[in-house]
Amino acid sequence: MPKKSKSRKSKKAWSGRFQKAMAKSAEEFTSSTHYDVRLYKQDIVQSIAYAQTLLKAHVISAKEAKRIIKGLEAILKGMERGKVKLDPALEDVHMNIESMLISKIGDVGKKLHSGRSRNDQVSTDLRMYLKFEATEIIMLIKKMQTVLLDLAEQHIKVIMPGYTHLQRAQPVLLSHHLMAYFEMLERDKARFISAGAAADVMPLGSGALAGNDFKIDRELLAKELGFSCISANSMDAVSDRDFVIDFIAACAVLMMHLSRFSEEIVLWSTWEFDFIELSDKFATGSSIMPQKKNPDIAEIVRGKTGRVYGHLQGLLTTMKGLPLAYNRDMQEDKEAVFDVVDTVRTVLDVFGEMLASINFNAEQMGRSAKKGYLTATDLASYLVRRNVPFREAHKIVGEIVAYCEESNMELEYLSLKQLKQFSDKFSYDATRILSAQSSVNSKDVPGGTAPNRVKDAIKHARKHLLHDKA
């Protein structure tokens, strides 16, 4: 006769093999119910589809399938209304839902898990979740791109200094600068499309690692759940978290772009730059200095970028030493991905609102574009067009800049007589190219900062965004 345990009754689905109940500390340590409850919709939808598949495979009867589905639908309604309390002792949301189903419809509910492991169940839920979130984030990116296009159109005549090494380099249109971030976000959308595609593979039917015990129609099941294809190898299917890493990596690159933008907002809002003024709605003050107006939103975005990076590195480190197939370490993916989703969605929302409310100081930008010898390259190009080798032209203009520094004057105010002291290749038209406006107009190539090119870029981007089905 088997020995009976004298310890408290276990609620675990796997308790049959064990003689003693799990220690309370271990139970609390291993429970994921408090965070994986976010997957309840995916889990119930998946279970309904799986019940229908079991029916088609003649594992359960039509009457049993109907009771199971009806019970699951009732649980879904209860959870959506917040009327269901989960039991941490049941380990996770998946076992809680199964326990609730059995409580509602009796032993018939115990048949739902036939051939299914939590290994393929959890992976399927997470893939469904990330497919949805990738689409949601793409929509938020599009919303921010629209803000950028609106700002670019509004400020098409504003000239500002372009920078390299954070040193003034050449004049550019503010609109051109803003459109650079539009292009970054365009690449981000492509990454999330790819991440969504990586998640669009159904592992359900893989069992714990070896496959399903029943002749279920996995292709039909995938179609019912909205997956484009099924996994090819059951061991890989239950132990794969590449799709999670791909998603978080896409989030990390997006946050990197927003962090770069945030850094410029922080710089531009300083007294020294004075390129922008943040709306009072998206700035904070100091607890001690009454005059302060701080760009805290942009600074927090920079900080949260590191948070997302940390989750990416954490999951990569978790996965790097795991043998096939499933290991409990992989439970760590949920909190990471949920936090990343919350962070990115919140950042995109607030950043777009902050951006739309910024007041750009066009006059200050224009004044800054006239200082720092920003048209020096244009002067060198002028000499090149008159058959002066570029390296020689570079040297000549460098000497002209040194002369201007000593004379405390800008290139724009040089006379033809002064230019000819450095090269007889200069003619009457040389002084016409030294303004910031002339410099901007001259960059009339695809991708350049010439006004007509930037207008074309905005128009093309607007049309693309309108018809973008991603």
Q: What is the overall shape?
A: elongated
Distance between the termini: 63 Å
User: CATH top level of the largest domain?
Assistant: Mainly Alpha
| CATH homolog superfamily of the largest domain | Fumarase/aspartase (Central domain)
How do the strands of the widest beta sheet line up side by side?
1-2
User: What is the β-strand count?
Assistant: 6
The biggest beta sheet is recorded as:
2 strands, antiparallel
What's the mean pLDDT score? Answer: 94
Number of domains: 3
Q: Give the CATH topology of the largest domain.
A: Fumarase C, Chain A, domain 2
Instruction: Give unreliable regions as ranges.
Output: none
Number of helices: 18
Note the run of SSEs as H and E: HHHHHHEEHEHEHHEHHEHHHHHH
What does the radius of gyration come to? Answer: 31 Å
The computed structural class is mainly alpha
Task: Describe the secondary structure blueprint for this structure.
Blueprint: H1 24-30, H2 33-36, H3 40-56, H4 62-80, H5 93-105, H6 118-154, E1 159-164, E2 167-173, H7 174-199, E3 201-202, H8 218-225, E4 229-230, H9 234-239, H10 242-268, E5 276-277, H11 296-319, H12 333-356, E6 359-360, H13 362-369, H14 376-384, H15 390-407, H16 416-420, H17 436-442, H18 451-467
Parallel strand pairs: 3-4
Antiparallel strand pairs: 1-2, 5-6
